[in-house]
Specification:
Blueprint (H helix, E strand, L loop, with lengths): L7 H5 L21 E8 L3 E9 L2 E7 L10 E10 L8 E3 L7 E13 L3 H7 L1 E8 L3 E8 L9 E6 L13 H4 L20 E2 L13 E3 L8 E5 L4 E8 L2 E6 L10 H9 L5 E8 L9 H9 L7 E10 L2 E2 L5 H15 L26 E2 L11 E5 L10 E4 L2
Parallel strand pairs: 11-20, 16-18
Antiparallel strand pairs: 1-2, 1-6, 2-3, 3-4, 4-9, 5-6, 6-7, 7-8, 8-9, 10-17, 12-19, 13-14, 13-15, 15-16, 16-17, 19-20
């Protein structure tokens, strides 16, 4: 009796003398099985979610794509198994062929099942952790009961964890729409991280926010800064023109003319730059009342700007890169333009042991340690992507 071919349905739907899709092939990754999500402009735009399991890529078509909101139960139609080599496929499926339309690798990485993955798959409840460029944390695929459709409908659900985020705050499919095929695999520690090329610099940007905690984490996977007592400020630079925005998207360029001029003088590459504005007192400590007074008196010449992130820069979307890599990019940019800026990088987290030194006065630069009196600590997880809602971590001393 001939051995059953798990790709029988896949091959039967395609003419491989016409379509550029692979007929078979690929290398199994038993130690670290992979996942891929392909964005597919077929008759209707959808996202093909695939998990390596049992020598093939188990596949589901998700019309709306993944959501980090635990309340969103995204329909996921179970389709035919695909070959492992399909993980690398990007291109145009010709008209007249099954699934005709453009395909990109929207996300990829490794996955880890909670429990026995084969049993979970067969029982219709597969729970797993994703480690991708865009998708992280704990997820579940649940087969719907009482359905008689030819293609079994499942639900793709984000489970509750630190990565979960309300849809009103963040939509990963809208804010991170592009291919990751040019980026290194998430399990390749030796690869040099690169951003994703973008076609046009976004007109708006939602800033990454912090979460209040009662105590600092115990491990050393965090970088610390002291939290500034100021206003969050985002800068959009395009064609040499810097426009300043509050965290809520209000244009403050006219309210901060000296700061805008200083930024323009730096000739920064096109991009989005994230930081905080402060007014320092005579002891070098940010004074929120003096900052408010500066705006009330329309005299903002004393305002200093501490930059701590660069989510977009010079044609690249850097939001999926680790925080440490983005910081290194920003540090290099500033040091090459401010030879006397006295730029420092944050140190490691060692519980409540924090350096005590005052910064030089400067208009623009990276945060460095400040006197600890009356200030809260601010931590950033080293591998955190920009959009991760809990990458910064605040706690009171």
């Amino acid at each position: 009796m001939p051995k059953h071919d798990p790709l029988h349905h896949y091959k039967g739907k395609r003419n491989f003398s016409v379509t550029p899709e692979p007929a078979d092939g690929g290398v199994a990754n038993e130690a670290q099985p992979v996942f891929v999500v392909q964005k597919h402009w077929a008759r209707r735009l959808h996202y093909d979610f695939r998990l390596e399991l049992g020598g093939t890529m188990k596949s589901w078509a998700v019309p709306k794509g993944p959501s980090y909101d635990t309340a969103d139960k995204r329909m996921a139609v179970h389709v035919e198994d695909h070959p492992l080599s399909y993980n690398e496929f990007e291109g145009e499926i010709p008209a007249g062929q099954y699934g005709a339309g453009n395909v990109i690798v929207w996300d990829r990485g490794t996955w880890q099942a909670v429990g026995d993955p084969q049993k979970g798959y067969k029982s219709g409840k597969l729970v797993f952790h994703l480690h991708g460029h865009k998708l992280q944390g704990r997820w579940a695929l649940i087969r719907m009961k009482g359905k008689s459709e030819k293609q079994a409908p499942w639900l793709l659900i984000k489970e509750k964890d630190d990565y979960a985020r309300p849809a009103s705050e963040f939509s990963v499919v809208d804010e991170m729409p592009d291919s990751v095929l040019t980026q290194p695999r998430t399990d390749d520690a030796k690869s040099q991280p690169t951003g994703t090329p973008y076609k046009a610099l976004p007109k708006t940007l939602r800033p990454q926010l912090a979460t209040l905690a009662k105590s600092p984490p115990a491990d050393d996977a965090w970088l610390y800064e002291l939290k500034f007592d100021g206003y969050r400020l985002l800068t959009r630079v395009e064609a040499g023109d810097a426009v300043l925005y509050t965290r809520n998207g209000h244009d403050w360029t006219e309210r901060l003319p000296q700061l805008a001029d200083a930024l323009n003088a730096l000739s920064l590459p096109d991009g989005w730059y994230d930081g905080e504005i402060v007014v320092l007192d005579d002891n070098g400590i940010p004074d929120f009342q003096q900052l408010q007074n500066a705006f009330d008196a329309s005299n903002t010449a004393r305002v200093d700007y501490f930059l701590f992130d660069v989510p977009f820069c010079d044609g690249e979307d850097l939001r999926s890169l680790p925080q440490t890599e983005r910081r290194a990019r920003l540090k290099s940019l500033l040091e090459s333009r401010q030879h006397d800026a006295n730029v420092d990088t944050p140190g490691k987290n060692h519980g409540k042991k924090v350096q005590k030194s005052a910064p030089r006065r400067r208009r623009i630069g990276l945060p460095r340690p400040l006197p600890t009196s009356a200030l809260a600590r601010h931590l950033k997880h080293r591998p955190a992507t920009y959009w991760h809602p809990h990458a910064p971590w605040d706690w009171k001393a």
